[in-house]
Amino acid sequence: MTEKDEKLVSAAAEVRLRAHAPYSNFMVGAAVEADDGTIYTGCNVESASYGLTVCAERVAIWKGISRGEKHFTKIAVVVDTEDLTPPCGVCRQIIWEFCGDVPVILANLEGKSETIMMSELLPRAFDSKFLK
Ligand code: THU
């Protein structure tokens, strides 16, 4: 892993500790890198009305968008699982729309990691090009 990737994974691991996950106890941290290198982080935030829960990946992307970013080049997701946890289906759609075919770094707390391209996680994706 490059030094830059390590920085992204560390940012995701750090924000994971702020996950609000009292119902699932499944803490997730995500970090996205914007075009200019700025890193935006997010953790999952659960609701007592379970369906309103928002995943870490979307919190990180919404944070960047709300700061004026238009596009991101890489995302890291950190979960404390032996088998590396990939983004859920909803997040795959959002990552595709705001990042495109970017590398997704999956990592756990034991230093295990794997990088997968978004096109592998979400083949034949739906996006705005079909709306034109
Ligand atoms: N979760 C994420 O934050 N990201 C994912 O991609 C998978 C699921 C969260 C949502 C919920 O708070 C908890 O993990 C269990 O599903």
Task: Walk me through this protein's architecture.
This protein is of the alpha+beta class. It has one domain: 3-Layer(aba) Sandwich (Cytidine Deaminase, domain 2). The protein has four helices and five strands, in the order αββαβαββα. The chain has helices spanning 3-16, 56-66, 89-99, 118-121; strands spanning 28-34, 39-43, 72-79, 103-107, 113-117. The chain has a five-stranded mixed β-sheet. Strand 4 and strand 5 (113-117) form a beta hairpin. The longest helix has 14 residues, at 3-16. It is globular, with a radius of gyration of 14 Å. The model has no long low-confidence stretch (mean pLDDT 97). The site of tetrahydrodeoxyuridine (THU) has 13 residues, from helix 2.
Task: Give a brief description.
By secondary structure, the protein is an alpha+beta fold.
Features:
132 residues; alpha+beta; single chain; Cytidine Deaminase, domain 2; globular; 4 helices
